[in-house]
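From the shared-data thread, chain only:
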Amino acid sequence: MNRYPMFGPQLLISFVAVCETCSFTRAADRVSLSQSTVSQQVRRLEELLGRTLFARTSHEVRLTEEGIKLLSYARRIIALNEEAHDALTGPWRDGVLRLGMPEDFTVPTVDLLAAFKREHPHLRLDVTSGLSLDLHQAYLAEELDLVLVKQHRVHLPRASRPEPLLWLDSREHPAIEQSPVPLAVFPMNGLYREELCQTLDSLGIRWRISYSSAGLAALAAASAAGLGLSLLPASCCLPSHRVLGIAERLPPVEDFELALFYRDNAAAATLDLAERLIAFCGLTR
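Structure, as tokens:
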């Protein structure tokens, strides 16, 4: 049993109407009830709380401190009730599509997603951005319906394309010339980090973590500015970068890909969005 009294939505709607109109008469007109009914509903709220919500005089209706506190909660409860109704029967009656993608794809795909939404106006699109490993784990836990991730070629995706990586250093302030070599990397379990560190270990090159960020753009800017050597997609290369390679004993890294995952029983809207992402990203099956 719930040890707290339950506030009926209609009681809260009448209470908010009185708050916003400063009048029981005008509130009754707003909610299409009689003035006596609105008064009874407010009195019922006061009985449930054991508090006086309005200071009434013959000339005005004014909220008490307790009434002011309740007003914020009442509005939130009413809004949540409306949201639940809409989620089941209203604007989002076609359900929710949960999409996951790396942060660097969220802005470039905005126009694609906007066009998709115009054709599916009753579908709510929830987009999650983050590290690829986290996104793939969320997909496996069925917390996401469709994910675009960067990965080693280990999990078999629906569609993919190679993701060329480059060893990026600062042209003006090279990290590779320092000892130990400073690194600009993703946080623990972030993509490319283990590959970078293991390669340097195998070459006997001493290193230290100098800069860490979950943002791809931030890592690209950091390595270009001299904060550390980084291993990043070729698309991140800036004019102020120096690309390293065989001359520095650093091997090419070619076993990463951009991959798209969705389930066999995916809804039609999910399949539609998947096809758009495949075309946009240049993926192949």
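The chain has a mean pLDDT of 90.
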